[in-house]
C-alpha cells in the first residue's frame, strides 16, 4: 500500500513544485522517458502510411476510401486533446495522462486483431480511432512536458530532439512494411495475418510501458509552475482571458494546415511513386518511403544544429518556405525527379510540427495545458487533407496532380512563421522566453557554490549548459 500511496496520481494545479526550474542535468531522466513516446507515434503514423497502400491491394479499395485510415487516426486527436485527455491533464497532471494514453493505444491495438482476422476495413478504422485517441492523449501531455521540463531557452531544441525519435519511428515502420506486409501476394491470407502480430506486439509493449510510467518518479509540472516561468521572463500574455489568446489559435490553425499537408504527402507517397515511376513494386516504393522518412529524421537533427546559432523562429520560417518551394515541382515532374522533390520536402517538413508547438505555447503561463490541447487538436488536419488528396488522385488517376492540395495547405500554414518573425506581438514573447535564465542560472550558482569546502559540483551538467549557451 505504501508503494501505491507514494505513486499517487493526484497532483494539485495551484501550488508550485519547483519542476519548472529544473536544470539540464535534473531533467535528463524524465525527458528520456517521455521521448520514448515520440518514437511510438512516429512508428504508428509510419505504419499507417504503409497500410494505406497495403489495404488498397488486399481489400481492393480506392485511394479516397483507404484515406479513411488517416481520417480515423487523426480525427480522434481533437476528441483527446480538447476532451478527455485535456481534462485528465488539467485535473490530475502529466503522469496520469501518459498512462491513460498508453492504455488506450494498447486497447486499440488489441481490437485491431479480430478486425484484421475478419478483413473488416471499417472495424480496423474503429480500432485505429481508439489508437489515435491514445496517441492524441500522449501528444497532449508530451509536447508541453518536453517544452516546459528544463530551461525555457532550450525548449525548441528539446522538442526537436525528442521529435527526431518520432522521425526514427517513421523510418522503421515502412521498412517493416516492405518486408512484412508486402512480402506475400495480395490473395495470400498471410498478407493480413502479419499485420495482426505487429499490433499484438505493440499492445504488449505499451501496457508494459504504462506500468513503467506509474512507478517512475517523474516531476509533475503544475499551472503555477508554468505561470512562474512566464512571469519570470516577462513573456506572460496570460493576463488576457483565454479566448483572447489569438497567437495560440493562429498556431492551432497553422498546425491544422501543416499537419494535414504532411500526412497527405506521406500517406500517398507510395501511390505517387507507383504512378510516376513505372515498374516500381509496392515493396520498393515502401523502401523509398523509408528513405524519405530517413531524410525527415535527419532534417530534425540538422534543424537542432541550426537552432544553436540561429533563432528557432527564423529556422522555422526557412524550413516551411522550402516545403512550399519543393513540393510545387512534384505536381508536374515525373520519375526520379518528382520523387526527389518529395524527398527534399520531407527533409524540410521535419522541424515544423515541434516549432509550432513550442512557439505557440510561448508565454501562455497558466493557460499552457489548455493551449496544448488546441495546438495538438490541430493535428486533425491529418483527417481532412488526405481524403481530399485521395479524391483528386482518384478523379484524375494521377496522385501527382493531387500534390496541389498539400501545397495549398502549406501556404496557409506559412502565415504563422511570417507572423512570428515579423509581427511584434508574436515575436517579442517568443524571444523573451528564448532569453530566459531559468534553469541556467541555477547551474551557474551551483558552480560558484562549489568553490566552498564540502560542496560538490555536477561538472557534466555545467559543461553541458555552458556549451549549449555558447
Task: Describe what you observe in this structure.
It holds the Pfam family MFS_1. One of its GO terms (molecular function) is transmembrane transporter activity. It is a multi-pass membrane protein. This protein has 470 residues and is mostly helical. The chain is 76% helix and 0% strand. Helix 10 packs antiparallel against helix 19. The N and C termini lie far apart (48 Å). The N terminus and C terminus are likely disordered.
Report the CATH superfamily: MFS general substrate transporter like domains
Q: What percent of residues adopt helix (DSSP H or I)? A: over 70%
Q: What is the average per-residue confidence, as pLDDT, rounded to a whole number?
A: 79
Specify the oligomeric state. single chain
Number of strands: 0
CATH topology: Growth Hormone, Chain: A
Query: First CA to last CA: what distance?
Result: 48 Å
Largest sheet: none
* Total of domains: 1
* Overall radius of gyration: 22 Å
What is the 3D form?
Answer: globular
Strand content: under 5%
So, CATH architecture? Up-down Bundle
Element string (H = helix, E = strand) = HHHHHHHHHHHHHHHHHHHHHHH
Please give the count of helices.
23
The CATH class name reads Mainly Alpha
Amino acid at each position: 500500500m505504501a508503494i501505491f500511496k507514494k505513486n499517487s496520481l493526484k497532483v494539485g494545479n495551484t501550488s508550485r513544485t519547483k519542476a519548472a526550474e529544473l536544470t539540464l542535468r535534473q531533467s535528463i531522466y524524465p525527458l528520456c522517458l517521455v521521448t520514448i513516446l515520440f518514437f511510438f507515434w512516429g512508428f504508428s503514423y509510419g505504419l499507417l502510411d504503409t497500410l494505406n497502400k497495403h489495404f488498397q491491394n488486399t481489400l481492393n479499395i480506392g485511394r479516397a476510401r483507404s484515406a479513411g485510415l488517416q481520417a480515423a487516426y487523426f480525427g480522434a486527436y481533437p476528441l483527446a486533446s480538447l476532451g478527455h485527455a485535456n481534462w485528465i491533464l488539467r485535473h490530475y497532471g502529466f503522469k496520469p495522462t501518459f498512462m491513460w494514453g498508453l492504455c488506450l493505444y494498447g486497447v486499440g491495438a488489441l481490437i485491431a486483431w479480430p478486425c484484421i482476422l475478419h478483413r473488416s476495413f471499417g472495424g480496423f478504422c474503429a480500432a485505429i480511432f481508439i489508437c489515435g485517441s491514445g496517441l492524441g492523449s500522449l501528444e497532449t501531455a508530451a509536447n508541453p512536458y518536453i517544452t516546459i521540463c528544463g530551461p525555457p531557452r532550450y525548449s525548441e531544441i528539446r522538442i526537436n530532439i525528442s521529435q527526431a525519435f518520432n522521425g526514427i519511428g517513421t523510418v522503421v515502420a515502412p521498412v517493416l512494411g516492405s518486408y512484412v506486409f508486402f512480402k506475400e501476394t495480395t490473395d495470400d491470407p498471410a498478407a493480413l495475418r502479419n499485420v495482426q502480430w505487429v499490433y499484438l506486439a505493440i499492445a504488449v509493449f505499451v501496457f508494459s510501458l504504462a506500468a513503467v510510467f506509474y512507478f517512475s518518479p517523474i516531476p509533475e509540472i503544475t499551472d503555477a509552475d508554468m505561470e512562474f516561468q512566464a512571469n519570470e521572463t516577462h513573456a506572460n500574455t496570460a493576463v488576457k482571458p483565454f479566448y483572447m489568446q489569438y497567437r495560440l489559435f493562429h498556431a492551432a490553425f497553422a498546425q491544422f494546415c501543416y499537419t494535414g499537408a504532411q500526412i497527405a504527402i506521406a500517406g500517398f507517397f507510395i501511390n505517387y511513386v507507383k504512378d510516376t515511376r513505372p515498374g516500381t513494386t509496392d515493396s520498393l516504393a515502401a523502401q523509398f518511403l523509408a528513405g524519405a522518412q530517413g531524410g525527415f529524421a535527419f532534417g530534425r537533427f540538422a534543424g537542432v544544429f541550426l537552432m544553436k546559432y540561429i533563432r528557432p523562429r527564423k529556422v522555422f520560417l526557412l524550413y516551411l518556405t522550402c516545403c512550399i518551394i519543393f513540393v510545387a515541382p512534384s505536381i508536374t515532374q515525373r520519375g526520379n525527379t518528382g520523387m526527389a522533390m518529395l524527398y527534399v520536402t520531407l527533409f524540410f517538413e521535419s522541424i515544423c510540427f515541434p516549432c509550432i508547438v513550442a512557439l505557440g505555447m510561448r508565454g501562455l503561463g497558466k493557460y499552457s495545458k489548455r493551449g496544448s490541447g488546441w495546438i495538438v487538436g490541430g493535428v486533425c488536419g491529418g483527417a481532412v487533407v488526405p481524403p481530399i488528396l485521395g479524391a483528386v488522385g482518384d478523379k484524375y488517376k494521377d496522385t501527382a496532380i493531387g500534390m496541389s492540395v498539400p501545397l495549398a495547405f502549406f501556404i496557409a500554414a506559412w502565415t504563422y512563421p511570417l507572423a512570428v518573425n515579423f509581427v511584434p506581438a508574436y515575436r517579442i514573447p517568443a524571444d523573451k522566453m528564448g532569453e530566459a535564465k531559468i534553469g541556467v542560472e541555477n547551474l551557474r550558482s551551483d558552480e560558484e557554490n562549489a568553490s566552498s569546502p564540502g560542496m560538490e559540483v555536477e561538472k557534466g551538467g555545467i559543461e553541458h549548459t555552458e556549451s549549449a549557451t555558447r
